[in-house]
Automatic annotation (TrEMBL), chain A:
This is Carbohydrate ABC transporter permease. PANTHER family: ABC TRANSPORTER PERMEASE PROTEIN MG189-RELATED-RELATED (PTHR43744), LACTOSE TRANSPORT SYSTEM PERMEASE PROTEIN LACG (PTHR43744:SF3). Residues 72-262 form the ABC transmembrane type-1 domain. It is found in: Cell membrane. It comes from the Bacteria. Belongs to the binding-protein-dependent transport system permease family. The lineage of its organism: Bacteria, Bacillati, Bacillota, Bacilli, Bacillales. GO terms for cellular component: plasma membrane. The chain crosses the membrane at residues 12-36, 77-97, 104-122, 142-162, 183-202, 244-262. InterPro entries: MetI-like, MetI-like_sf.
Automatic annotation (TrEMBL), chain B:
Residues 68-282 form the ABC transmembrane type-1 domain. Keywords: Cell membrane, Membrane, Transmembrane, Transmembrane helix, Transport. This is Sugar ABC transporter permease. Its main location: membrane. The chain crosses the membrane at residues 9-28, 73-93, 105-126, 158-180, 261-281. It is a multi-pass membrane protein. The keyword Membrane applies. PROSITE patterns: ABC_TM1. Pfam families: BPD_transp_1. GO terms for biological process: transmembrane transport. It is found in: Cell membrane. The lineage of its organism: Bacteria, Bacillati, Bacillota, Bacilli, Bacillales. It comes from the Bacteria. One of its GO terms (cellular component) is plasma membrane.
Amino acid sequence: MKLTYRTRSLPLLYLLFAFITAIVLFPILINVFTAFKTPGDLMNSSPLALPKEWNFGNLKSAFEKGNMLVGFKNTGILVLVSVFLNTILGAMTAYVLNRFDFRFKRVIMSLFIVAMVVPFYTTEVARFQIIKGFGLYDSIGAPLLIYAGTDLLQIFIFLQFIEKISSQLDESAMIDGASYVGIFTRIIFPLLLPASATLGIIKAVDIMNDMYIPYLYMPSKELHTLSTSLMSFVGQRASSFEQLSAAILIVMIPTLLLYLFLQRYIFTGITAGAVKE
Amino acid sequence: MSYSLQKKLVVVSFLFVPVALLLLFLLYPSLRLLQFSLTDWNGISKSFHYVGFENYIDAFSNPDVWKALTNNFLYFGIHAIFIPLEVMIAVFLNNKMRASNFFRSIVFMPYILNGVAVAYLFSFLYNPINGPFNALLESLGLESWIQNWLSDKSVVNYSLIVVSLWRFSGLHVILFLAGLQSIPNDLYEAATIDGAGPLKKFVHITLPSISRVMEIVLFLNVRGALQVFDIPFLMTQGGPGLASTTFTVYTIQTAFKYNNYGLASSLAIILMLMIILFSYFQGKLFKGKGD
């Protein structure tokens, strides 16, 4: 509802949003302050106070003791490979579903819809057995396979974008003798790249923040991701809050940076799935 | 190669991997789950016995399961109460206000942060000894409000729900905002000409136009509330006792900690049915309201 406020109510509005900003930022800022305090400083001053001097030692030691380098590496591999597979598979699925009519098309579409209703956490009991059966338990292959699967939201958004690509492009390519695979790789896929970027970023954030699949399927220390590194770090040293805060900060930074620089794409992706029919 | 042969090849080869992954990791496990739920399998041994609906009967007669479900319901209820507030914030954000983009980014930020990090961050905030949250209350002169946020049975769920609100309300606001932005401005202009005031415009234009987003937010709320897992699992392990155990925490512990796959599977199936049922009725509700 576009309204222009009378100047009298505008300050109230700013006050409301300043309050919301404070609620959002308070936990994060307190954590940042704590991450830079020395143990003595933390003991002797209010937990709300700024650090007396900014001490970078906690970050360094949390990074080393928390096995964060391994976490960054594994999370990086998971994100890059899964997003790559995901984008290609999603685009291929959407291409076939949009451009061709064939038997079982409706069945396949409804399978994706059913999959959306199946609660993610609960099928784990059975999925665990399948991963074990493949001999993928405690290997990076397990999450890769699980993340590579496309979801309904993704296919939905790809379908919307393909819809807008005129099929006359396909036809003129066919007159020039292009094959369907050629049409996909040379015309459709390149035109889907902007949509892919948006979806890829959202998927990347999801994977970076996931704890559940790595926790269940990759318990080994060498296979820890950022989330599971943090979990085991906390398990070991729950009481020293300055180091804990430093570790929390390290794990938050990657998605936070991604968010700050690529907000626009994240917003479009999240909202495109929701608003359009 | 003729185009009709090509078409067959493309359809089959392009869909093979995505559909295989879907069947293998989502649909086949669901069917297996149905099978396990009828057995006494412990997850390790090679053999198991079919026990009929015994697990389901156990699940329903187990007070712990009901306790867990009550906790899930609390998440749902409190998130639902916040929906009007979220709509209001979205309406405000949609106005011509300076720094609107900045506030939009702030509101959505918690949703983007790592869930594990957020859970531990709040564990630290709630710390009973010299914890930042209690220090804040003290500095505001509200010492009497100080609690054992995570170890008091009567408080712990609310402490955890606050974390959930902090994390997910921003997503709802942004979804509502997207709904608001898709409303053409002429509608409001026409209403102004017809002499409608702000309240009338809100009731007759804004609310109906965001009903689809409302449906999505409610669906996310049902799904989210029934599946709450990481916040209690990481912050309290469902404790003290079973005070903050949710249905999913209980299911996962039954399976992986107590090796009772049969019972855990039946719990999972029950959860699945609940989600399907709720979504179905909600869909009906919204369809009934539209023309």
